[in-house]
Fold this sequence. Notes:
By secondary structure, this protein is mostly helical. About 75% of the residues lie in helices and about 0% in strands. The protein has helices at about 5-40, 40-50, 55-75, 80-100, 110-125, 135-140, 145-165. Helix 1 packs across helix 2 and helix 1 (about 5-40) runs antiparallel to helix 3. The radius of gyration is 19 Å and the shape is elongated. The N and C termini lie far apart (about 75 Å).
Amino acid sequence: MMTNNTTELAPATTMTDTGLLILRIAVGATMIQAGLMKAFDFGTTVGFMESGGWRLPKFAAFMVTASETLGGIGLLFGVLTPLAACAVIGAMVDAWAVNVSADAFWSQPFNVPFLVAFSAAALLFTGAGTLSVDHRMFGRSRAPVAIAVGLLVAGIVVAIVTWIALNGTNPIHFTAPKG
């Protein structure tokens, strides 16, 4: 008795695409909410950057607000997903650094930026799936591996360079900083 393997594989593909959609909605909505909070209270965002010792606090606040909001929109709809994931990874590496910079790096909660950065990295490598603008408009559901790796590295490098250039401190401490 022969079976048709195509029909047996279709539900698995549909379930994977549904799972990617759920992940994109969760990460995208999280980032949009974080970005819009900063956008609607931009003065407080700038003040937070100033109080944290950031150089060019308005520029830093704009960068994080734009990265979170636009990256979130991109992930939510699955549009330019690799670039959106790269922006979110960069923003979350710096958010993690903000959380751990005031104390020993293991003593402060860093679970949200950590989880969001890794979720964005997962989407960078898996792609947005067939239930996405990327698939509908561009006929692709994921980027080639070399581009995904390059964008992961770029997101991390941009976060580190941004931190060094605009904050100028080492965020990782094994003991609480003096002061």
